[in-house]
What we know:
2 helices, 152 residues, 8 strands, alpha+beta, 2 domains
Amino acid sequence: MRTSFLRRRSWVAAMLAVGTVGILASCSSMGPMSRMMYGQTVALSGANEVPAVTTSASGSGTVTINPDRSVTATITVTGMTATASHIHEGAAGTNGPVIVPFTKTGDSTFAAADGAKLTESQYASYKAGNLYVNVHSAKNPGGEVRAQLKAM
């Protein structure tokens, strides 16, 4: 009886090991696109602009930058008449050039264009925390609300 119990226990342990190896092997063969980064929620405010802007406007959205450098984003603002929105390259406290322009999809909404992608250098800036999203208005053409992006 004891021998039968030990054989069953060894068989169960062997099956668990085979299953674990199979799961790990299938995960590692999925490729980089299956390991996409999760979108980060952003909260845009005038206080984050450089220089800071006094405004009652605010914004929110989701920005996703994947390991293949592809970009998806949706931004919504309230309390302002938005004219443009983009991802810029620049550290917190500094301004920088537009690198991903967004398309206006509604009165107060913007989205990254299909196929938007960072260069290797821009992706390195993203990983270093040196990208930001802002939304411009006629009242504040340099940007009314802003949020710094943080690599996940």
